[in-house]
Amino acid sequence: MPTGVAIRDVREQLFDAADRILLRDGPSGLTSRAVTAEAGVAKGVLHKHFEDFDGFLADFVLDRVERMDAQAAALRDAAGTGDVVDNVAGALAAVFGSVAVAIVALVTFRDELRARLRRTWPAGVPVLTEAAIMIGRYLGAERELGRIAAGADEESLGAMLVGTGHLLFADRTGPAPAPEAVRRAVAAVLGGALPR
Fold first, then answer.
1. DSSP designation for 39
2. Helix (H) or strand (E) holding 34
3. How big is the chain by its Cα radius of gyration, in Å?
4. 20, exposed or middle or buried, with CB in 10 Å at 0-12, 13-18, 19+?
5. Where is the signal peptide (predicted)?
6. How far apart are CA 22 and CA 99, in angstroms?
7. Segment (H or E) for 180
8. What single string gives the DSSP state of each residue in 36-69?
9. 44, 193, 80, 26: which is closest to 14 by C-alpha?
């Protein structure tokens, strides 16, 4: 790309390129050269906007976590409607059907990235932690409506459901689990928390 040509939304362009690379090639394929080539920009563009490549990756991960806000709001708004198990199974499929599984692999693959994320994200893997919070809050709303047992620990259930979802979706190179398999797993985790 010639110098002096303005690039609109360069961060988003680079982040979208990172999404495509992660989904196609996994964390080992995600390099600064691969990102700039995929985005169609000069390599210097990345370093102009980010301190270094790990800084880019940290911002990328946090941006993708922020994108979950709309999904979290939609799930909370679903409280009191539909079937609880179906709502949670759909939320898990949406989280893990996205770039989230690849981001988990990326975070565990790169020590420096984990160290940078700890500066602003004190515990857990950001995408998984945010998903557990999202599902826990939804279950809390359902508990208030009487659709989840009064004594249910929604935070623990959210974490267990995300862990279960991660196990189901962890192999990004194989086929995604069937929706019925996800639903069965959710029903098993929530079994004791659902009113009879």
1. H
2. helix 32-39
3. 19
4. middle
5. none
6. 7
7. helix 179-190
8. HHHHTS-HHHHHHHSSSHHHHHHHHHHHHHHTHH
9. 44
Break the chain into its structural domains and give their ranges. Answer: 1-49, 62-193
Fold type of domain 62-193: Tetracycline Repressor; domain 2 (1.10.357)
Whether the CA torsion 110, 115, 117, 121 is positive or negative: it is positive
Q: Which CATH number fits domain 1-49: 3.30.450.40, 3.20.20.110, 1.10.10.60, 3.10.290.10?
A: 1.10.10.60
Q: Which tokens in the block code for residue 63?
A: 């941006």
The tokens for 144 are 């208030």
